[in-house]
Amino acid sequence: MSKDSSIYKERSPWPIWLWLFLLFLAATLALAIWAALGTRWGWISMLVQFLGLLFLSQRSALTIEVTQKQLRVGDATIDRKFLGAIVALSADEMRQWRGPLSDPAGYMALRFWLSRGVKIQINDPKDPTPYWLISSKKAQPLAAALQDQV
Asked: Three-state SS across the chain?
């Protein structure tokens, strides 16, 4: 086990309802292609669309990891020593911080299918980012893991 072991880990893939909706759209397009070009092209288009959706679902899933020294959200990483106030947000609070209260300089790792999240103040004098706003399906446990000083 490494020195910087994981304290908290979360992965937020597409929900079932989003998969069903996008597969319905893909089937509709494949049906239109089948009607215009024939069975072979209909199946090829469905396969290409399905593979594209699979790729997009893997790339757009939000991964959050808290280790003893760092917070990793997607491709972004910050040392925990630069984290300030940490607040777990309700759906209404998250909506406000995504919209009217948002600061364009803030880092936002948002997924529209997640209604809750965490707001983290950044206390790094070299970083102009005032806060990170992170979508999370488990906002309270994430906030608790970040506040836990190891």
From this structure: CCCCCEEEEEEECCCHHHHHHHHHHHHHHHHHHHHHHCHHHHHHHHHHHHHHHHHHHHHHCEEEEEECCEEEECCEEEEHHHEEEEEEECHHHHHHHHCCCCCCCCEEECCCCCCCEEEEEECCCCCCCCEEEEECCCHHHHHHHHHCCC
Check: pTM over 0.85? Answer yes or no. no
Mark whether 55 and 68 lie in a shared domain: no
pLDDT digits (tens, 9 = 90+) for 41-92: 999 999 999 999 999 999 999 999 999 999 999 999 999 999 999 999 999 9
User: Do 80 and 127 lie in a common domain?
Assistant: yes
Contact 102, 76 (CB under 8 A): no
